[in-house]
Amino acid sequence: MVVPDAAPVVVVVVPPAPVEPVVVAPPVEPGVDLAMQARMLHRVGACAGDTPVPAHLTAALVDKYCARMQDGIRKYRERWLDRAMPFLADVVPDGLPTVVVYPFGGGDLMTALATYPDLTEITTLSLEPAGDVRAIERIDAKRLAPILSKNADLIRRLFAVSHSKTTNLSITTKAELPGELVFTLVALEVHGFEPVSLRYFKIEPDGALNYLEADALAAIDARVAKLPDGRRKAAQLASFGNVEIRFRKVSDATAPLRTFRHISGDLSDGALKKDRRVLAHLESKGRVVAMTKAASFLLWWDTFSLMRKYLLGHMEWMISDATGIPNHHAKKAGFEQITWGRFEGPFLAGAGDGAPMRRVWQTNPLTPLPFRYGYPDSKGHSHMMVTRRAAVTK
Fold first, then answer.
1. Which of the four, 29, 261, 316, 390, has the lowest number of CB atoms within 10 Å?
2. 3-state secondary structure of 291
3. What is the pLDDT of residues 242-261, one digit of tens each?
4. pTM for the whole thing?
5. Gap between the Cα atoms of 303 and 268, Å rounded
6. Contact (CB, 8 A) for 375 and 321
7. Range of the domain at 134
8. Are 139 and 246 in the same domain?
9. Model confidence at 8, in pLDDT bands (50, 70, 90)?
């Protein structure tokens, strides 16, 4: 019997249907992002870039103000920044945390970036609120000239002394432009950064940040609008105390984002015992580096012991003028202190004679300091101090 050959088996390969790429949307950031207003204030208040001046303002006045501002920035770079940054680069050791906490440091991102140029996050804390960035949209063009003149004068004083005097900050809180924000945006301009986002937040009891959404902003506006004219500005200002600005190097979309936060609040023991949300937030950061200067010698006082205790419990390294942590507290917590310049006593009346702090300078070799870092001493001497763990060396 003959068996016919089996029919050939034909295998048909069907190509798979093309798979559409799955597009994953970036996560939605919480809170209202006021980046547009931040860029507007950066352009007008800090004279950043050359984009057109907002249409509701007078370009000629802004250009005149910016010519004065850019001259001030140039002189500040030459007189302070170009001397201080190379010096500080030799003082600040490698390998430190890149998260900075700066108590009593309102309006002074400028010095912080000079001291810690590689920081990834910084939190400044002071009584002064950040202010409402949307004020730049409400400026009356007829009032623009005196507003810019006052702003230029305040920034000129900041450049001259390289710290934000309390009296100057109190003036900025009454100004029609939000002074804390303007100082911060000027710092970004000086150091070659630009704002990418701006959000306001409140701090929850566990220290978490709760960013303000549109309904919260609308509620603030409605509440403020009901107040008498004489109370509106202060109420509006106080409602925008805490701000977060994310920023990066100018015109570099690939540059990593960095975070600046300012928290407005009373750092005294009485206030922190009643409401420890600020401490809870700071504690959540883990190990940090710290700085303070021109801080009215508050860390000397026992009424600010909780902030001092927080710093000693969480910082790896700290730089300051004589308004830093007193030696007996630092030594007890396992820190040592080294100094530059001269300190013969506090120049502020009411701070005492400063004998314990004066001994710190007397027990260290005299090392010149070629620039001002915070307050002068009672004789006008520049001085600076580092509080460090003994194992941390350059």
1. 390
2. strand
3. 999 999 999 888 999 999 99
4. 0.89
5. 6
6. yes
7. 29-265
8. yes
9. low
